[in-house]
UniProtKB/TrEMBL annotation:
Protein keywords: Signal
Listed CDD domains: PBP2_PnhD_2
Keyword Nucleotide-binding: no
Name under which the protein is recorded: Selenate ABC transporter substrate-binding protein
Pfam family, one: Phosphonate-bd
InterPro entries: ABC_peri_PhnD-like, PhnD
Amino acid sequence: MRWLATSAVALCLFAQGAAADTFRFTAIPDENQSRLVERFSAVADYLETRLDVEVEYVPVKSYGASVSAFRNDQVQLAWFGGLSGVQARRLVPGSVALAQGTEDAEFKSYLIAHRSTGLERAETLPEAIRDKSLTFGSRTSTSGRLMPEHFLRQRFDAAPDELFSRVGFSGDHSRTIALVEAGTWELGAVNFSVWDAAVADGRVDTDKVEVIWETPPYPDYNWTVRGDVDARFGEGFTDRVRAALLEMDDPELLASFPREGFIPADNALYAPIEDVAEELGLLR
């Protein structure tokens, strides 16, 4: 197994015609790069053993870059969010969502707030969030932007820039947490699993920032494979990849996502995400 330290290096290798029999995958950069490299290099080792081909993890610097790498056949498999998976499958006809985490069938986002706001946890989005500053994660993050914005619009019948004093995009969930904890932003929309893992690891000062609301559930992360992998790697390769993902049971590998395990998925499961993205104009 090998992983490529930067997307620039990866693109250089592709331009030079890297070996066609190497199976490459990427993942949306929803946390800081060092954590991603650690968790996905171990996944590459696992897949290489199961698939009996060379496997490389290719880091990318943005959600958009993960979709572009998939579209351009620089990677053949990707760990996408709900929206990025929809985007990728639209661009590469025949591509299939193979698996999702057990938590991804009913995923959720948290709205977090700096303690100085005086906001407390509630079952319904409180009126008091009006005129506060809010940062989303990546512009195309399902849990850090798409679904939180959808529920905010449902509740207040207003776009975020009409509802809040300032609206920003941090780039990833870890950064959102850090910025709200620092008081740079009063509110933030964040993936619940990243928040829960950060709290469990002691990486969040809960005296400074807390969860004030959680969204209703929605489908999110997924492993998506290109539709042409059987032609490249042999008949039945898609099924072998699916089986390897569904049978991943090493607690250390699963904890790195973090997920309890993986369950079957298909493209139809993400129709609700596609509908919301169309509504918000994020698929044009």
